Structures are given as C-alpha cells and as structure tokens.
Amino acid sequence: MTPNALDRLVTLFSKLPGIGKKSAGRIVYHILDSSPALAASLSKELSSLHQAIIRCSVCGGFTETNPCSVCSDSNRDHSIICVVEQAQDMRIIEEAREFPGVYHVLGGLIAPLEGVSPANLTIDKLIDRLRTGTPKGSVKELILALNPTVEGDTTALYLQKILKSYPVEITRLASGMPVGGNIEYIDKLTLSRSFRGRVKF
Amino acid sequence: MTPNALDRLVTLFSKLPGIGKKSAGRIVYHILDSSPALAASLSKELSSLHQAIIRCSVCGGFTETNPCSVCSDSNRDHSIICVVEQAQDMRIIEEAREFPGVYHVLGGLIAPLEGVSPANLTIDKLIDRLRTGTPKGSVKELILALNPTVEGDTTALYLQKILKSYPVEITRLASGMPVGGNIEYIDKLTLSRSFRGRVKF
Lengths: 201, 201
Fold this sequence. Notes:
2 copies of one chain form a homodimer. By secondary structure, chain A is an alpha/beta fold. The first copy, chain A, contains 7 helices and 6 strands; from the N terminus they run αααβββαβαβαβα. In chain A, 41% of the residues lie in helices and 13% in strands. In chain A, strand 3 (77-84), helix 4 (87-96) and strand 4 form a beta-alpha-beta unit. The radius of gyration of chain A is 21 Å and the shape is globular. The N and C termini of chain A lie far apart (66 Å).
C-alpha cells in the first residue's frame, strides 16, 4: 500500500534538520494533495541551488555574486567585522537590521571532541583580512557573535589569544536574560552572566 | 547578502506543513552545506512525484499501481473496510499492522463552516462498494477510523444514518485515554468517553 516513490521522498525529507519521519510523511502527502506546481517549483529550485549559490570569497557567506552584496556595499562600515559561526547566522543578524558592518564566516566552532580544530576554520583568512585591511581602511573592531556555549566560548577565547598582536578591538555579543524572559525560570549560568555583564541605566 | 535563489527556496519550504520561516532557512542552509547529491535526489523525486503516484480507483489511497497493493491483495479481508479521512491515515494504520482488511479514503470530513459537504466526500463510491461487494464477497463491517473531533463525529453520524439500510455492521475506533496517559491531565471529554466506552476485564 505504500508506494516506493512516496517512501523515497519521505526518507529524503526526514534527513533534513528538524523533520522527523512523521513530519516528512505529512509533508509529502501535502505535496501530493497540492497542485503539481508546488512540487515542480521545489524541484526546479533544488536542482539549480548549488549552481546558483556560491560562497563569497571575502566573508565566506552564501551569495549569487562574488563578492557578496554585503562585502561589495561601500555604504557599509568595513572597519567592523562581525565573526559568525555559519552563513545562516549572517542571515539572521541581517534580518535584525542592527549591524552596519561586514561579516566573517568561521565555518564552525572549535570542538576537539568532534574533531574540529582551529585549522578547520577560516581563521587564517580572518587574519589576512586584518592584515590587508579593506577598501575603506583597516579593521578597527571584531565582534565575536558566537553562541554562548562551551564551543562558542572556547573559540572566542582562542581568537582573542591569537589576535592579541593585531591593533583591533575584540568584543563579544552580550550574554544574559532574553527579552521577555522570567528570572524565575532562567538558568543559573545565564543569571550569573546577566549580573557580571550588567549595564548602567 | 541574501541571494534570490536561496530566498525563493526558503519561501517554498515554509509553505510546507509544520515548517515555519526559521526552520525553512535552517533546511535550505543545511542543503547548501550538504553534498549536491541531496539537493539533486530531492529535486528528482519531487519532479516525478505526481507522475509516479496516482490515486487507487478502488479505495482512493495513493499508489503507484492501480488498484493499490492493498486493494489487489487477495490475502486481505475484503469484507472489512476501514473508512479514513485521508490517504496518510491509511499509511499510519498500515504501519501499526493491526488491521487485516481494506480501506476507503473519504477525502475529508464534513465541515459546513469550511464548505465541506457530504457531496465533496467519496461517500457515493463507498455506497457503490457496499452495493457491488468486493471479489471476496460482500462487505460485512465498516470501521469508521475518523478523528474524535467535531468534524469526525459529524461525519461518523452522517455515515451511520445514510448507510442504515445496508446490511453492514458499522463500528468506530475506541476513544479514550491514550496509552501512557495520566488521569490527572486528561481532559473531561476524553475521560467521559473512557467511562462510557469502558470494557470488561
């Protein structure tokens, strides 16, 4: 009763992040129930995705043009580089419309247990950017926008140590209570960071 | 910084059930980070899905052959028809390996507020199946495996009424406490159904 083409697609969908076998089933049946146009557009976009999207040779983010629209935008502040773990973090920060500078995608975080060492990240490239500077003048600040996890902390400490000799200010995103959070339910570590990172009114 | 091809795919994925805009972004970046083979297989399966999968002319389920493997299986009990709302319910019941009979997909539930009337369902086809019988003899039981919701209850009552004149036993799936459930947290309606549907030890 379960046709093969359907099963194959369910298996493929369940490989995607956040999609279990049940959700994959629901999705495929939804596509079957929908107009064939949905399947056709999904198929078309997927088939050309890897050709259309490349990595920016400057920041390492995903782009259709090289350098990407951020790196080639002269209205942005090229003296501040926001260092992120992965390309999607760049997208999320861009959507917040908070950051006027440019980016650097590390391509991961240092995690010895998972076999990720500093050599696997784009740290050499970051140092190159600090050395050669950018069209708009040399880099003045590096904002480390890494997750407040063990791996993020380790990577931030490593970068701080290795970049000590460069005349660049290194900062990190504030860690503390999320907006709308409740002191009652916040974990102790986050609460402790909120205290240590407290700011003047 | 956000390329168009990427955005288009994120928009398409966020149209699928259970996938919001954030998950869609995660999925597309995952596909970009993965080997192009994943995107290629997804694209290929999606492009042929609507050609490969058709509706069984007997039960209405999705199938690659017509009639489907359940309807054409002479080892199954064709005297019991399990009536389900949609094709995916058939898949879920098949996976439980509990039901030896055949299926009938209604294609929805009666919901006047959403404009779904009995005429929109495959009720005529179900009556045809009761009239003409199946290769293995006439139908003896109809199990209504419809969700215990207002729409499911309405549809079950309607089917019971309209099929009164046919010599077929009509049953419904038991409704009550889920296995592993806790009386403390169960809603009153479910508890009341558990009492009314109580069974002898």
